[in-house]
## 1
Amino acid sequence: REIAPGAVHVPGWLTLDEQRRLVGECREWARGPVPIRHTVLPRGGVMSVRTVCLGWHWQPYRYTRVAHDVNGRQVAELPGWLADLGRRALADAYGRSMAYEPDTALINFYDGQARMGMHQDKDERSDAPVVSLSIGDTCLFRFGNTETRGRPYTDVQLASGDLFVFGGPSRFAYHGVPKVYPGTGDPATGLASGRLNLTLRVTGLS
Ligand code: MD3
Ligand code: FE
């Protein structure tokens, strides 16, 4: 389950009930105040995933409270219960409880064609771990290294309910999602198709 130092995969961590609740909440969060959108990159590219943010709004490549790139509204707050879930996730993955105060969640929705290229997450001013929860269709997740976008990397399938924590030396590793496998999710989660990924992060901003 430890894919690399600080990178821990816990398959099937979320119960079906927890997944159903998260799918329902994601549906609400996707409606606004800042609706879910395809992020437009500074050079004009459009990301194939759709993203909605809580706490802080991510726009490449910084966090703001106000969504200048969407509708100028302030993003919804990060609910306390979601930060609690993040603490429980971290404790289960690492086998010990730690202080952890995530202040933002990024929720990505992948349809069957969506991908995420290899990148590092370095817009946060903190090296606190990232907690990732997957719901819906299984994907191919590529976990690389901190030096280059390319090899060596480890390919892992992330299925519905899986938890992944990225801390320590893995926090700034390259990673991406080269493929989603349509039709592999359980409709009982409430998600008929596609994949949801929730990440909890500490921005280090105030
Ligand atoms: C490893 N999301 O939102 S989650 C992202 O499935 C992102 O939507 C992917 O990469 C997704 O930035 C991958 C797993 C993940 C998230 C954050 C990480 C892996 C990470 C940060 C550092 C290292
Ligand atoms: Fe990332």
## 2
Amino acid sequence: GSFSKKQEDLVNSSWEAFKQNIPHLSIVFYSSILEKVPIAKDMFSFLKDCDGIPLNNPTLEAHAEKIFEMIRDSAIQLGAKGEVEVADDITLEYLGYVHIQKGVTDYHFLVFKEAMLKTLKEAVGDKWSEELGIAWELAYDELAAVIKKTMCW
Ligand code: HEM
């Protein structure tokens, strides 16, 4: 699919808004996931032994930031060359391995997408638009497809 410069700009500016408030927004993100899939609490090393979702937890925040950063990178790559390639610092084989090992399913990927949109809505406030949501969805779907392909369930 094609990804316009405007869509790339929308993703970039909301990524900046996300980065301004990671301590809060990472909690919004994981809360939204656990609301739909409570059992996911046991899947994440930084959640499983906690009562609820830990505040100001560097591992949790880094994980949320990494996911949003990878989706934003996908948007840039879609804009530049029309396809997604995962950056060198983390191999696809490894990503596939981690997600298979944790028992991640297609449904989980859907829940992640909804959580991403909810988090971004909160990040950008009144700058939210349907167009902005669609741009992130496209970038997410392409990235998720690449990860799922390496999982091959
Ligand atoms: C781990 C990315 C979707 C569950 C990871 C890691 C990355 C990542 C980069 C860290 C690997 C490491 O450094 O050890 C992504 C991206 C996704 C995605 C970009 C979507 C496009 C999902 C989904 C689930 C999930 C849908 C479902 C629950 C996990 C779990 C871990 C993990 C449980 C291990 C975290 C830990 O315990 O430290 N993911 N992931 N991921 N991911 Fe995902």
## 3
Amino acid sequence: GGVLPTSHVLDELKLSDADNTLGGLLADLSEFDSNSCASRAQHLQRKTKFKPSQELVQRLRRYEAQHRKCASRAKDFGQPKSGSRVHDSEAPEEECRYVVWIAYSGLGNRLMTLVSAFLYALLTNRILLVDRSSDMSKLFCEPIPRTSWLVPSEITVEFVQGLNESSPQRFRHGSSTAGDNSSTAEFSYVHLTHTSDSGDEMFFCDSGQQQLDTKPWLFIKSNSYTVPGLFFITQFRADLSVLFPDKEAVFHLLGRYLFHPSDAVWGWITRFHKSYLAHHDQQVGIQIRTFDDSPLPYFLEQIQECVEQHELLPKVVKNVDSIRRSEELQLQNLQASEKDITVLVTSLHPYYYENLRDVYLSGPTEGGESVSVHQPSHEGWQKTNTFGHDLKAWADIYLLSLSDVLLTSGWSTFGYSAQALAGVSPWILPRSTDGQVPNPVCVKARSMEPCFHRPPLLKCKIPEGANPATILPYVQPCEDVKWGIKLI
Ligand code: GDP
């Protein structure tokens, strides 16, 4: 339909790879239903220097076969195992094992936890199933060819969403006493949120994993990017190193594997892109998330200072005489730069966008570059699980991920998702602690990877209070959250 960009536009869209599989990361397009997902065929994403390792490619193909086989058997969850269903002539079937991802928190958090759960599934020979309680199926295409990643309807939304801290099946908490009937004995509920305790955190210890290994079904509720924590589990470490020779590319690769905007979201993205972003020499993305209900003037100042100090955008001529001189020079074509810079602002408020745009309308830039400033939406406040709202959130993340340069807000998983999908180490705008512009105003991230905000204390590994970053050189403290850890 009208969504297809013209070939002229395609040139400018920096198509990632001619083969459309992103270097073997995605299954061959012919494996998928044709017409099922325009974004997979037309992806606009930036070309990436991070190629998937051969081992990762093989693991994904093996996973896809496993997923197709096991997804159809998932409806048997909770049913008593009966030997009579297997014909005598058939060899006993290989066991299927599952990780169920429970929808929880905003979209950025969801992308964090989906990548974390998917990597865990790859490492433990489980398949990942996605809770249907939210609008995930309307926002994303099915990532695995010829099957579905949604929890089968036989397992009710009420059951999945009903699991919580008080569930007797909570890992390391519930009574392990007799009385377990077959349906509860076969699963554990893993609770990895801001309210997790040291019992839950045994998930990141070898002994915890041995215990979980006995359960065919795991239901995980989390709002954290737990991937850096998986590197502390001895049995996974060698495998992780082979799968990801570039440690900072974990989310980048798995995110591009899993997250393809649905056709509804894709229409919004491509129409916005074509109208406002396609024709530029450089795109600068500014993601603004202040965790405050009203716009914050000091944060606008912080952005402007960051941009100026690090020369991320051209300077505007302020003095009236200089403006006249500059305009005369440009009229004579002596100084005119042909460069077009597009600034994509995302925020819940229009305030920052309006002010930044005014700056570039108030005078010419010193080098004559044109700077246009755009913001696709301003939703006012978070309305997670309202489809129209989540559509805009996902579109904003995707459009940000097309940027060549990124400024992101510290602490925000929304920004983490955009930077990691982009493959760009952003300039992070730290959160102010006193309502003043912080110093430094921004810091360049050491990698594009998201931060694990609440790393486990790892009592099984290191003395209490020690910094996990002292054990593995590629796991370091985050730039924005001091006690957080990230892969570099
Ligand atoms: P975090 O809270 O910044 O870590 O990010 P989350 O994505 O988990 O939660 C914030 C939610 O607020 C998003 O999912 C959106 O629903 C909404 N939101 C926050 N910032 C923006 C924005 O810039 N654009 C849009 N469209 N929605 C936003």
